[in-house]
Write a structure and sequence with these properties.
Chain B: It is a multi-pass membrane protein. The structure holds two protein chains of two kinds. By secondary structure, chain A is an alpha/beta fold. Chain A has twelve helices and 14 strands. The radius of gyration of chain A is 23 Å and the shape is globular. Chain B is mainly alpha-helical. Chain B has helices spanning 2-25, 29-54, 62-80, 84-106, 111-131, 133-136, 155-177, 180-190, 192-197, 202-228, 238-251, 256-279, 287-302, 307-341. In chain B, helix 2 runs antiparallel to helix 10 (202-228), helix 2 crosses helix 11 and helix 3 (62-80) runs antiparallel to helix 4. The chains are: A alpha/beta, B mainly alpha. Chains A and B meet through helix 1, helix 3, helix 4 and helix 6 of A and helix 2 and helix 12 of B.
Chain lengths: 395, 342
């Protein structure tokens, strides 16, 4: 009898709680990070879609933190043209469909003038498709070259691409006189993008790829691929993937006594990588942005001032060192603000104006042109070596 | 047709009314896009409902058919320049063929074994899409897939296109359910042995249900590709298959309306959670997965037949009670009258 009454009440209770849920939701005001200073004028609304949850969250969370930090700073200094900047954040859950839904929400409900994001390539490409059709300026923080190649009006991105990384590594190899390499890349979008670029640019630098191996993102061991590489006459091994794959490769290469230098991509260039490789990673090389070793950036480097300012501010706010992803977010909003200043009060011109923006950021020196919507060159990347468990600049 | 109107007239009327009203009550692009995505999912879940509820099979590979449909239409329109309409027809046929071959291969399997086989199929398709780079673009996916034009290309016209398809799929399935075929399916669902002894070709019926569900998923996939404009292999995995399964189970496996209502309910709950997370920051992210899991457990524990059959039963019970009360009343009156007469 008791069970029956429980059953009888369960359904109405469930419905009631649902109604309550939606009622709560309906009355809510959108979460917004409005600034404190210069609040008298109407704010400029900017959307930001990052992958705050799901597999891309290690990228999206620092990006959001950097943007939040910068918004406070901009509004503290009086905003843009006396108007505060209001950033409305959305989470795409690392999912393409959610990202497209989110950008539609920002465009139609919030009427934002531009959108930042997203963290991953798939969501960014989906958003770019909509943004290009709606002529809504978009600055992405994702790696894929396809986002800005071919160039579309109003679509930009801040991170270094695999093209920059590839060229920078090849430049280094040329200096060292290395001509034969092996590659071992993740089979995810990031790694396969690298495979394509490595193949494409190798002849230009007189380099032959003698072995081309792949691994799955979740593979626990890559020793069979490494054994194959060991059997070739490769003089260096290039690894492109996101952690923990490259770290596993470094450890297993040591166990297999593979003595050729290993060069890892910027996808794994962070402190997590150092943690994972432990003491087996001495001498591993990496290509990365300057933000990886802010204290070693030369004082006469044009980027040194902004890197110093960003790192200090970020550390004070979050008590941790900013990584490259935080830098992408930071540069994204800075570029947008630069564009807003130039466009003046006319937000509709923003997409075109950005095409002429030149700005020194923490990732590199951005020079947008009509046929380059990324604006970076391989010279803004550096080669680092793991020494005593730390990243050291290779001169 | 008349049969349907008689039997489903009321529900159909309410459905059409709400469906047409929704985009005007929520006159902003965002809620229309939410409506579109729910519609796309509903096409898949109605198909899945035919397989699960009627033929009594479990498919954990529905997202794979969805993906095959999406890629078929995307490749044909983007690489070969065919109009999206042709792409969409191919998006129904190709997954149907896959379902036919798979269905033939695994027709002898039941229960968990069938679930495992479809699970494996789902993985194979996702890996296949990722590795077949020259055609599918691999993990990087495809971009610039042409939009579907249906009386303009606004969000509103897309909404009506997709819900138009949902309505067709719904009518087809309801009609099927009330035909000889539908009765055969229900017999199979209750007991395969009994159905066989009644002269029903169980294998053939199961295969048909499987193929139809694959085709529905394919149509939805094709529409999804043209709606999104980009594709990559990520959405076509196990996670999505389980989501479809959850929608069907919550709404009620044995009812086509259940699949539809389950899908709408899940869509509304995730929207509610997004709104709620703006007030309660702790609720951000994967909370919906937890909530759906909890709902699934509760449904299976307390109303394994699902929401819609339960509600329908409750209404019927209420009506029966009312009728009984009226009968009692009449009897009492009669007695009183008789007493008065004597």
């Amino acid at each position: 009898m008791k069970k029956r009454t429980f059953k009888k009440w369960l359904f109405p209770a469930a419905v009631a709680s649902l109604v309550f849920l939606s009622a709560c939701g309906g009355g809510a005001t959108p979460a917004a990070e409005s600034g404190t200073g210069g609040a008298s004028k109407e704010p400029i609304k900017v959307g930001a879609i990052f992958s705050l949850t799901g597999p891309n969250s290690p990228l999206g969370v620092p990006e959001k933190q950097a943007v939040e930090l910068l918004v406070k700073e901009i509004n503290g200094a009086g905003g843009v043209d006396g108007r505060p900047v209001e950033v409305i954040f959305e989470d795409d859950k690392s999912d393409n469909t959610e990202a497209v839904k989110a950008i539609k929400k920002l465009a139609s409900k919030e009427k934002v003038v531009a959108v930042l994001g997203s963290s991953g390539s798939g969501p960014s490409l989906g958003m770019a498709e909509y943004a290009a059709a709606e002529k809504l300026p978009l600055i992405s923080m994702a790696a894929a070259d396809q986002i800005t190649n071919p160039v579309r009006a109003g679509i930009y991105k801040t991170p270094h691409t695999d093209v920059h990384g590839t060229k920078r590594i090849f430049k280094y190899l040329k200096e060292k006189g290395i001509t034969k390499i092996a590659t071992l890349n993740d089979s995810n979008p990031y790694g396969s993008g690298w495979t394509t670029q490595l193949q494409k640019y190798a002849p230009e630098y007189g380099i032959t790829i003698v072995a081309e191996e792949k691994y799955g993102t979740k593979d626990p061991s890559m020793s069979s691929q490494l054994t194959k590489v060991k059997g070739t006459d490769a003089q260096a091994l290039i690894v492109a993937g996101t952690n923990p794959g490259p770290a596993t490769i470094v450890k297993e290469a040591k166990q297999l006594n593979l003595t050729i230098p290993i060069i890892s991509s910027h996808g794994s260039a962070n402190s997590k990588f150092l943690e994972l490789i432990g003491n087996s990673g001495e001498g591993v090389l990496m290509v990365a942005g300057k933000l990886l070793i802010p204290e070693q950036v030369a004082a006469d480097d044009p980027q040194s001032a902004i890197i110093k300012k960003f790192v200090e501010g970020y550390q004070a706010a979050y008590n941790t060192q900013p990584d490259g992803f935080a830098g992408y977010g930071y540069d994204g909003l800075n570029l947008l603000v630069e564009g807003l200043k130039q466009a003046g009060s006319d937000a509709s011109k923003l997409g075109e104006v950005l095409e002429k923006v030149k700005y020194v950021g923490v990732t590199g020196e951005f020079k947008f042109t009509t046929d380059d919507h990324n604006g970076l060159t391989e010279d803004s990347m550096i080669m680092v070596e793991v020494k005593d468990g730390k990243f050291q600049l290779v001169q | 047709m008349k049969q349907i109107i008689d039997k489903w007239g009321k529900s159909m009327g309410i459905y059409l009314f709400l469906m047409i009203l929704f985009p005007f009550v929520m006159p902003d692009e965002y809620y229309r896009s939410v409506g579109i995505i729910i519609g796309l999912q509903a096409i898949v879940t109605i198909g899945l409902c035919l397989v699960m509820g009627l033929a009594g099979q479990i498919s954990l590979g529905q997202a794979a058919f969805w993906g095959i449909g999406a890629y078929t239409s995307a490749v044909l329109t983007t690489k070969y320049g065919l109009p999206p309409f042709i792409g969409l027809i191919a998006a129904a046929i190709v997954p149907g063929l896959f379902a036919f071959i798979l269905g033939r291969a695994i027709a002898g399997l039941q229960g968990y074994y069938l679930a495992m086989a479809t699970l494996a199929f789902g993985y194979i398709v996702q890996i296949g899409i990722t590795e077949w780079e020259p055609v599918t673009g691999g993990a990087n996916g495809m971009i610039s897939i042409p939009q579907m034009t249906f009386f303009g290309d606004s969000e509103l016209s897309m909404y009506f296109l997709i819900w138009g398809v949902v309505t067709c799929v719904l009518l087809f399935s309801l009609n099927l359910l009330n035909s000889r075929v539908g009765r055969a399916f229900r017999a199979i669902h209750k007991s395969e042995i009994a159905a066989t002894s009644m002269g029903i070709d169980v294998r053939k019926f199961k295969l048909n249900a499987f193929v139809v569900s694959g085709m529905f998923a394919g149509i939805s996939g094709g529409l999804y590709a043209h709606y999104m404009g980009i594709l990559d292999p990520q959405p076509f995995g196990l996670h999505e298959s389980i989501k479809f399964l959850t929608m069907v189970v919550i709404g009620g496996m044995t009812s086509i309306w259940g699949a539809l209502i389950g899908t709408i309910l899940i869509g509304f709950i995730s929207e509610g959670l997004i709104l709620l997370s703006e007030v309660v920051p702790g609720l951000q992210g994967d909370v919906d997965t937890i909530v759906f899991g909890a709902i699934l457990v509760l449904i299976i524990m307390f109303m394994p037949e699902g929401l819609v059959p339960r509600i329908r039963a409750a209404i019927e019970k209420g009506q029966a009670k009312k009728a009984k009360a009226m009968a009692d009343e009449a009897q009492r009156k009669q007695q009183v009258e008789r007493k008065a007469a004597t």
